[in-house]
C-alpha cells in the first residue's frame, strides 16, 4: 500500500518536462508547428469566450439578477483573472500543450494530474456538445427566417421531443388550444408526431449539430494554420456585430429600466453564476496551444489577460444595454439579443444578430475542438492513455487520431443530448481545473520550485498573512450589513427548517459547508506560511462559484471522476512513463 501511495504521488519536474519536449523536437518526435503569434492567441481566446454566453445564457442571468448581473460578470472575471495569472505563470514556465493537466503533474503528482486531465476531457467535450446544440438552434432559426424550414425531428434531441409530446398532449386534453401552448413545446410535439419510425422507435436527432461538428473537426484536423485563419476571420466578424449591437442599443436604453438595480437581491444575482461563468470557460483553451506558439513565455500570459479584459468590458456593456432596453424580467429567452431588437421594432438588427450568432458559435466550437486533442496527446505522451492519441499526422502536423476521436465524442452525443443537461457540468469541471491550477502555484511556491525572476512571467507576490484575514473581516462586515438577518441568518442556511436538518436538506448544503471549512483552513495556512495572496484568492473564489452549482451537478461530476479512477487503475497506473525505469523521465 505504501508503494502504491508513493507511485500515485510521483511528480514530473519542470526541468524534466522541458527536457522531454526538447528531445522530442530535436529527434523529430514532436512535429507540431510553431506558427501562432500574439494576435492569433488573442483571437483564439475571444473566439472561445464570446459565444454561447453572450448570445443565449446572458438572457436568463439578466432575468434572475436584473441590471446587477453586470456586477456578476465583473466578479466572475476577477475569479477568472486570479486563475489567469496562475495559468500564465505555468504556461510561461512550462510551454507544453497539456494545460492544467501538465501543470498539476509538476506540482501535485500523477494522480491529481490524471484527475484534472480526465476532468478537462469532460469539460471540453461537454462544452462543445452544448455549443453544437446551441449552434444548431440558431442555424435552424436562421433558415426558418429565410423560408428554408428544416423538419423539427431533424433539429432536436430525442428526449426533448418525447417530453414535449407528453406535455402538449396533456395540455390539449385539458382543453387548451394550440395558441395557448409555448412555441418551443409545440415544436417538440410536432417533432415527435411527424418523425419517421423504425421498428417502433422514433428517428429523432439533431442533424445540424452533427454537421457543424464534423466540419469543424475536419478544419482542426487539416492544420493549425487553417484553424488560425478561420478563428481570426470569425472573431473579426462577431466583434463588429457585438460593437454594433452595443452602439445601436445604447440609443434605446431607458434608464428607468435600471431601477431597481438588483430587484432580487444578492441571491437573484448569484442565480446567474452558472450561466455567467459558462461565458468565460474558454480562456484556458489558450494554454493548450503552447507548443504551437512562436514566443510562449511572453505571448501566452499576455493573451490570457488581454482576452479577459476585452471580453469582460464587452459583457458588462452588453448586460447594461440589454437590461436598459427592456425590463429585466422579459429577458428569460433563448435569444435575448435578437429579442430586444425585435421588441423595439428593429427586425433588421434581429436578423443580423441571428447570423452573427451562427458565426460566434462556430468559432467557439473551433477553439474547443482544437484544444481537446492536445490534452489527449499530452496524457498519451506520459503513458496514461494509449500511444495512438499522441500520433502526429505527417502532412497536417496535428494530433490526428486524437482529433478524430474528439469529433466522435462530441458529434454523437450532440445528436441526442439536451442543452440544459450539459451546461452546468461544463462549468463545474472548468472551476475545478481553475482551483487546482491556483493550488499548484501555491505548492510550487511552498516547495520553492517557481521559476526565477526574469525567466518568464510570475504571479506578483503579495503576502497574504494579514491581507486575507482583513478581507474576510470586511466580507463578514458587509454580510452583517446587507444580509436581511445578518451573519447569523446567513449561517442558518446550513441548518434545516425548524432547527431540524434532514439528509434531503443537508445534502444541498454540503458544498457551502465544505467551502467554509476550506476557507478557514486556507486562512490559517496563509497566516502561518505567508502564502501568496493572488493564488489563494483564485482558489477560494472559484471554489465558491462551484458551491453555487448545486449538489446534483456535484454528484454527476463525482461520478465522472470515479469513472476516471477506474480507467486510471486499469491502464494509466501501469503504463505511466514514470512507472517504467527504462524511460528517460525525471520524477520527484
From TrEMBL:
Among its keywords, does the record have Transport? yes
- Classify the source by domain of life: Bacteria
| Gene3D superfamilies, A to Z | Amino acid/polyamine transporter I (1.20.1740.10)
A single GO molecular-function term is: amino acid transmembrane transporter activity
What are the UniProt keywords, alphabetically?
Answer: Membrane, Transmembrane, Transmembrane helix, Transport
**Domain named Cationic amino acid transporter C-terminal: which ranges?**
533-576
Query: Where does it mainly reside?
Result: membrane
| InterPro entries (alphabetical) | AA/rel_permease1, CAT_C
Membrane-spanning residues: 41-62, 68-90, 111-135, 203-221, 233-253, 265-283, 304-328, 348-371, 401-419, 425-443, 464-482, 510-527, 534-551, 557-574
| Membrane topology note | Multi-pass membrane protein
Pfam families according to UniProt = AA_permease_2, AA_permease_C
Q: Does the keyword Cell wall biogenesis/degradation apply?
A: no
Name where it's found.
Membrane
Annotated Gene Ontology cellular components are:
membrane
Name of the protein in its database record? Amino acid permease
Q: Which organism is it from?
A: Pontibacter qinzhouensis
Amino acid at each position: 500500500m505504501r508503494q502504491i501511495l508513493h507511485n500515485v504521488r510521483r511528480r514530473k519536474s519542470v526541468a524534466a518536462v522541458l527536457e522531454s519536449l526538447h528531445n522530442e523536437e530535436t529527434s523529430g518526435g514532436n512535429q507540431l508547428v510553431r506558427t501562432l503569434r500574439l494576435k492569433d492567441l488573442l483571437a483564439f481566446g475571444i473566439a472561445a469566450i464570446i459565444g454561447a454566453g453572450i448570445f443565449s445564457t446572458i438572457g436568463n442571468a439578466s432575468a434572475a439578477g436584473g441590471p446587477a448581473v453586470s456586477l456578476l460578470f465583473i466578479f466572475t472575471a476577477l475569479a477568472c483573472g486570479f486563475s489567469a495569472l496562475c495559468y500564465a505563470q505555468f504556461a510561461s514556465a512550462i510551454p507544453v500543450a497539456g494545460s492544467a493537466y501538465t501543470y498539476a503533474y509538476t506540482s501535485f503528482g500523477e494522480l491529481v494530474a490524471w484527475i484534472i486531465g480526465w476532468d478537462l476531457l469532460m469539460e471540453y467535450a461537454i462544452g462543445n456538445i452544448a455549443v453544437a446544440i446551441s449552434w444548431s438552434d440558431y442555424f435552424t432559426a436562421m433558415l426558418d427566417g429565410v423560408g428554408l424550414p428544416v423538419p423539427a425531428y431533424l433539429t432536436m434531441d430525442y428526449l426533448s421531443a418525447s417530453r414535449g409530446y407528453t406535455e402538449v398532449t396533456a395540455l390539449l386534453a385539458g382543453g387548451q388550444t394550440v395558441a395557448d401552448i409555448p412555441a418551443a413545446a409545440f415544436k417538440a410535439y410536432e417533432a415527435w408526431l411527424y418523425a419517421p419510425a423504425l421498428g417502433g422507435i422514433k428517428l429523432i436527432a439533431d442533424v445540424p449539430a452533427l454537421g457543424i461538428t464534423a466540419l469543424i473537426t475536419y478544419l482542426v484536423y487539416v492544420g493549425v494554420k487553417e484553424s488560425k485563419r478561420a478563428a481570426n476571420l470569425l472573431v473579426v466578424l462577431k466583434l463588429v456585430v457585438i460593437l454594433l449591437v452595443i452602439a445601436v442599443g445604447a440609443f434605446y436604453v431607458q434608464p428607468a429600466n435600471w431601477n431597481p438595480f438588483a430587484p432580487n437581491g444578492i441571491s437573484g444575482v448569484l442565480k446567474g453564476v452558472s450561466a455567467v461563468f459558462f461565458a468565460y470557460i474558454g480562456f484556458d483553451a489558450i494554454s493548450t496551444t503552447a507548443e504551437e506558439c512562436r514566443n510562449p513565455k511572453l505571448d501566452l500570459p499576455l493573451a490570457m489577460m488581454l482576452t479577459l479584459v476585452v471580453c469582460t468590458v464587452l459583457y458588462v456593456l452588453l448586460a447594461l444595454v440589454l437590461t436598459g432596453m427592456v425590463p429585466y424580467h422579459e429577458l428569460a429567452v433563448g435569444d435575448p439579443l435578437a429579442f430586444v431588437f425585435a421588441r423595439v421594432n428593429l427586425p433588421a438588427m434581429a436578423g443580423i444578430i441571428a447570423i452573427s450568432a451562427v458565426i460566434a458559435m462556430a468559432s467557439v466550437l473551433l477553439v474547443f475542438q482544437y484544444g481537446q486533442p492536445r490534452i489527449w496527446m499530452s496524457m498519451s505522451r506520459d503513458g496514461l492513455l494509449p500511444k495512438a492519441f499522441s500520433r502526429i499526422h505527417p502532412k497536417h502536423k496535428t494530433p490526428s487520431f486524437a482529433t478524430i476521436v474528439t469529433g466522435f465524442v462530441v458529434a454523437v452525443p450532440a445528436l441526442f443530448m439536451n442543452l440544459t443537461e450539459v451546461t452546468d457540468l461544463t462549468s463545474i469541471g472548468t472551476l475545478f481545473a481553475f482551483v487546482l491550477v491556483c493550488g499548484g502555484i501555491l505548492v510550487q511556491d511552498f516547495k520553492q520550485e517557481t521559476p526565477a525572476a526574469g525567466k518568464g512571467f510570475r504571479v506578483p507576490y503579495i503576502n497574504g498573512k494579514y491581507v486575507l484575514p482583513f478581507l474576510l473581516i470586511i466580507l463578514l462586515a458587509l454580510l452583517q450589513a446587507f444580509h436581511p438577518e445578518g451573519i447569523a441568518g446567513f449561517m442558518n442556511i446550513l441548518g434545516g427548517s425548524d432547527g431540524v436538518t434532514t439528509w434531503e436538506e443537508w445534502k444541498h448544503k454540503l458544498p457551502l459547508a465544505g467551502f467554509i471549512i476550506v476557507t478557514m483552513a486556507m486562512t490559517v495556512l496563509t497566516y502561518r506560511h505567508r502564502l501568496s495572496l493572488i493564488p489563494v484568492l483564485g482558489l477560494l473564489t472559484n471554489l465558491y462559484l462551484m458551491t453555487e452549482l448545486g449538489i446534483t451537478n456535484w454528484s454527476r461530476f463525482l461520478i465522472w471522476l470515479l469513472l476516471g479512477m477506474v480507467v486510471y487503475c486499469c491502464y494509466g497506473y501501469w503504463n505511466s512513463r514514470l512507472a517504467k525505469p527504462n524511460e528517460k523521465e525525471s520524477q520527484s
